[in-house]
């Protein structure tokens, strides 16, 4: 509950408090899952997960993997993704537009940079990690690249899809 309180307080009570509570309850399980998927979390001398204060934490709570947490997270997620034959990846692709009908997201148009072809992917946007997208019919994920974040923000801004961007942390 203290984790949820820190989150709520850090947002000046503007965040969705139910979401903060759910996040605080679920994140310990997710950390263990990520460890099983291969993230080498840093350890304290007694072998437990090392923790440090981060952001508005009132005590050491954030786990980390040396100074490469993001790298290890992306690698573990990529390696785990490779185990599933029903997941399609679209590497070297660029989302050119977001398709909305009757105020509901229904897909994206994509330019394949290696083939030069344009194609449509029907789906829904996952609000995690800024660029992750999962389709309704066939899951897919777009590899994070340096040029994608501002472009995705611009496309979402154009369609009025952004929510509480004041809480986004890079």
From TrEMBL:
Span of domain FAD-dependent oxidoreductase 2 FAD-binding: 2-122
Xref: Pfam families: FAD_binding_2
Gene3D superfamilies found in the cross-reference section: FAD/NAD(P)-binding domain
Segments forming a coiled coil: none
One Gene Ontology term of the molecular function aspect: oxidoreductase activity
Annotated InterPro entries: FAD-dep_OxRdtase_2_FAD-bd, FAD/NAD-bd_sf, SdhA/FrdA/AprA
Keyword annotations: Flavoprotein, Oxidoreductase
Protein name: FAD-dependent oxidoreductase 2 FAD-binding domain-containing protein
Organism in which the protein naturally occurs: marine sediment metagenome
